[in-house]
Amino acid sequence: MEMIRKIRNHFSRSFLLIVLGFLFVGCASKPLYYWGHYEISIYDRLAKGNKEGPSKQIEWLRKDISFAQEKGLKLPPGFHGHLAMLYSETGDSQLSAEQLALEKKLFPESTVFIDGMLKRSRKK
After folding, report:
1. Which residue of 3, 7, 82, 99 is 20 to 30 Å from 18, comparing CA positions?
2. Average of per-residue pLDDT across 76-98
3. Helix count (H) and strand count (E) of the chain?
4. Are 74 and 68 in contact (CB under 8 A)?
């Protein structure tokens, strides 16, 4: 009987330590990306019909780029691609191309997708 109680106490303590360890590790983790206004920009475009217009969204995203650079934070995949699309809507093909090149550089796995979009857009 004594042996069972010792095993149960040991198991309870071990379980408690493991749970506490997971809680502390989960609380201490830092986000992988700085999202800034990116999600808001996407939502505004898709759900609200882009009421703010591309110029306002470009302003938001450029501020996010500056902030991320100051703090040494990474921007998420698609951020520069979305900014390229906004520049394209304003007619600034040079800045659009620069942002697409940056997206491909930062996230090489996006190259096939971006190149395919560019190829299809040239056919129109």
Report:
1. 3
2. 94
3. 6, 0
4. yes
